[in-house]
Amino acid sequence: MTQHVGDSGAVSWFFALDAHPALADVRRWVRQRLGRVVTEDKLDDIVLVVIELVTNAELHTNSPKSLAISHGHDTVKIEVTDGDPGMPVLRPPSTTRPRGRGVFIVDAMSARWGVRRCGQGKAVWSLVDADRPA
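Below the sequence we write its predicted C-alpha cells.
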C-alpha cells in the first residue's frame, strides 16, 4: 500500500489485490484513507463503487490486480485493474437476474466511468464527485 502526492495536490493510494480480496479489508482501507476528506454520505457512495469494481474484477476475470484511489479538488478517482482484456457490460437492471447489477450501480453512482487497456488486461475507472466535510 503506497501513497503519492502529485503536482496538482491530488493524493493517490495504491492497494495490491489478490485473487480473492477480503472485501471487509478493502472497505476498511478506503474508509481509512478518505474518511477525513469527504462527507460520510459520499464515503458510502465511494465504498459502494469500489466494492462493485473489485467484485466485478474477481467474479468476471478471476485476476484482480490493483485498486488505486486518488483524491483531488472535489473528485475521487477509483481504478481497478485486472489481467483480462474482456470489457464490462452495462446491462439494464432486472428483477429476475440474481446478479449483473455491478456496472449499473457504478454507472449510477459515478459522475463518469470508463475502461482503458492496461497491458494484457484493463483498468476500469470511476470518477465520483466528493463533497468535503464541513
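The chain has three helices and six strands.
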